[in-house]
Amino acid sequence: MSDLSSVSAAAFLVADPTRAAMLMVLLDGRALPAGELARAAGVTAQTASSHLSRLLEGGLVEVEAEGRHRYYRLAGSHVAQALEQLAAIRPAKPASAARPKALSPEQRQLRWCRSCYDHLAGQVGVAVTRALRERDYLRAAADKRFAVTAAGVEWFGRIGVDIASIEPTPRGLARPCLDWTERFHHLGGPLGVRLLETLCAHGWLRRSRTPRVLTVTPKGWAEFGRTLGLTEESVRQSQG
Hints:
- This protein is an alpha+beta fold and 240 residues long.
- The chain is 48% helix and 18% strand.
- The protein folds into 2 domains: 3-75, Arc Repressor Mutant, subunit A; 105-239, no CATH class.
- It contains 11 helices and 11 strands.
- A hairpin with a 2-residue loop joins strand 4 (114-116) and strand 5.
- Helix 2 (17-25) crosses helix 3 and helix 3 (34-41) packs across helix 4 (45-57).
- The relative contact order is 0.11.
């Protein structure tokens, strides 16, 4: 299949609102049954099954069988990144555009702190990445990558992230990922994955029952303040 036909085929699949809704629910990296995806998209189980078959055939999701049950997840981080990038594309607003609608509580939570498939995103994720760059722990490198400095290796090591133990992908160890709500970059790549895992394991972050939503714990704010100079107030002020 040519690159052009691959793009058009993937775009066709994502363009359907029902399929898009199911894909976005899977952005937190979980594997979910068809019934739960049907409820999230507001369709019947039969309709969801038809859409999931198309997504599976198109390579956007994969399925795992557990007994009689089938669980669907995104086919990989490349799909998650594509969805995040698409979500960041919005039409330019004319000067006379109406004021944007107020965000719902869930939307505010997602914007504040969430998982972007398998790394930290939202206002908190952007602020952490910005602090890492300001302290010269991360530097912009060629090929849209981040380079980890010697000071960065030391910092990550202090919080329990052993850089040497992380295997880079063909796209490198760390890369900037455009945050679809903030329009700035947060840390992606294998280092971003390990960082989120470590922050959750050490109790800096806590996963919510709401898909993708993360909460910074009191311990997390204390440690972010001690190691990166970040406070809840400073993050909120910096994002506006």
